[in-house]
Design a protein that fits this description.
The protein has about 190 residues and is of the alpha+beta class. About 30% of the residues lie in helices and about 30% in strands. The chain has 4 helices and 7 strands; from the N terminus they run αβββββββααα. The strands form 2 sheets. It has a 5-stranded antiparallel sheet.
Length: about 190
């Protein structure tokens, strides 16, 4: 199943997600989230982005850069991560990098600071405790997705003067996302 991705302006994106306690449906949900993410041509997707306020996200490591629009992203996957109830237990270094978000399609910033290396403790789709040490791009992806579980969007990590410039520069797009999010919620309420 492919879910509609919630856009900036949807309140679910600003809520702190609740812990996953029931793992019986996580595997199926993760498969659907991956299909949704592949359809949107992303690298990670958090449960709040599909309207579920749960501490769960999926992410993938691609073997190659997914540049060809026609080629299915699933063909490029090197590793899939299904991450529930993550906690970053160690951060090291600080680097600025480029980020975008499926809930803010088409908007990017090259100035998002993140830890260069992290250690994450989490539960997998079966509820088993796991730990990962990540660096570089995948460390950035995990931090971005964990922020979603806290109700934080990537542009909020940009230092204040640059963040204000980002918001001003993208004011029209952000307003459009908010209108679309309100319309979607109204439609959902009417079903």
């Amino acid at each position: 199943m492919i879910y509609p991705i919630r856009l900036y302006g949807d309140p679910v994106l600003r809520k702190k997600a609740r812990p996953v306690e029931d793992f019986t449906r996580v595997k199926r949900l993760a498969e659907d989230m991956l299909e949704t993410m592949f359809e949107a041509r992303g690298v990670g997707l958090a449960a709040p982005q599909i309207g579920l306020s749960e501490r769960l996200f999926v992410a993938v490591e691609y073997a190659d850069e997914p540049e060809e629009e026609e080629r299915p992203l699933r063909d490029l996957v090197r590793r899939v991560y299904v991450v529930a109830n993550p906690v970053i237990t160690h951060r090291e270094g600080l680097v600025e990098g480029t980020e975008g978000c499926l809930s803010l399609p088409g908007l990017y910033s090259e100035e998002v600071p993140r830890a260069e290396r992290i250690r994450v403790e989490y539960q997998d789709e079966e509820g088993e405790k796991r730990a990962l040490e990540l660096e570089g791009y995948m460390a950035r992806v995990f931090q971005h997705e964990i922020d979603h579980l806290e109700g934080v969007l990537f542009f909020e990590r940009i230092p204040k003067p640059k963040r204000e410039a980002f918001l001003e520069e993208n004011r029209a797009e952000l307003a459009r996302f908010q209108r679309e999010a309100r319309a979607f919620l109204k439609e959902l309420a009417g079903r």
